[in-house]
Amino acid sequence: MLPSQVAIKMINTQKVTEEFRSKFLPREIECWKRLNHPHLVRILGHYEAMQHVFLTMEFARGGDMLQHVQRKGPVKEHQAMIWMSQVISAVFYMHTRGIVHRDLKLENIVIFPDEGIIKISDFGFARSVIRGDALSETYCGSKSYSAPEILKGEPYDPYKSDVWSVGVIAFVIVTDCMPFCEKRPNPQIVEAQRTRAYEYPAKLHLSRECRFSIDTMMTFSWRDRPNISHCICLPWFRSLPPSGIHALKLPLSRLP
Known about the structure:
The protein is α+β, with helices and mostly antiparallel strands. It has 2 domains: 6-58, Phosphorylase Kinase, domain 1 (2-Layer Sandwich), CATH 3.30.200; 63-248, Orthogonal Bundle (Transferase(Phosphotransferase), domain 1). The chain is built from 8 helices and 7 strands, in the order βαββααββββααααα. It has helices spanning 18-34, 65-72, 77-96, 148-151, 158-175, 186-195, 208-217, 228-231; strands spanning 6-12, 43-49, 52-58, 99-100, 109-112, 117-120, 127-128. The strands form 3 sheets. The chain has a 3-stranded antiparallel beta sheet, with helices on one face. A two-stranded antiparallel ribbon has the order 4-7. Helix 3 (77-96) packs antiparallel against helix 5. The longest helix has 20 residues, at 77-96. The chain is globular and about 55 Å long. The two termini are 32 Å apart.
C-alpha cells in the first residue's frame, strides 16, 4: 500500500543521452531496488509511459538539507552530529553491499520532520563496485563535493571519494559555508584542499572533536582517508548511545 504522499521523479527519455538511458538509469533503478535502510529514501515503484520513466519514492516533507541550511543557517553541533551519524550509517550500509553513491551532497539529503530523521536520496550515479577492482575513472558528482583525486582527473577509489563528500557535507551543515570555492579552476581547488584552506568560524564555538572528525574525513590523500566504517568511531560520534545511531532521532518540535 502506497503512503498518502509520494514523490515522483520524471525522466524524459528523449532528452537524455543514450549513455544515461541505457547505462545510468537502469543502474540507478537496480541499485535502488537492492537497498533497504532507514536512512535511504525508499523507491516504491517505477514504470515507463509516453517516452518518460517515472520513479515513485517516499516524500520528504521537510525538503532537502541545502534548503534547510539556506533557510535557517548552521545546524547546532549536537543536532548535526545526529544527522551526520545517520548519513554515515546509510553510506556504511551501501558500502557493505558493494554499492557506492558517487554524488553525495546536501541536495541529496532530505528531511523527514515527523520522524525526526534524514535520508539519502538520488542514486543516479550509484553503482556496484567490488572492492579491490580497478579504480574508477568516470567523473561523477558535484565539483564542490568532489575529492582531490577526482578533480585531478586521476583514477579514484569511489568508496574513499564518498567519505570525502561526507566530510564536506558535515562542514557545510555546521558552518553554512562551502569549504572550497567551486568557481575556481580545479588546480586551485586542489591546492586549497591540500593545505586545508578553510576555517571554522570562531563564533560557532565548534568542539575540537567535531573539527577533527570533519578534517579526518577530508584527508587529502585517498590512501590515508578512512573507510566509512572508521568514520563512526571518530571522536565526534563517541557520545552516541549504546543502542546505536538508529535510536538517534529529533522530534519535530526540536528540529533546528
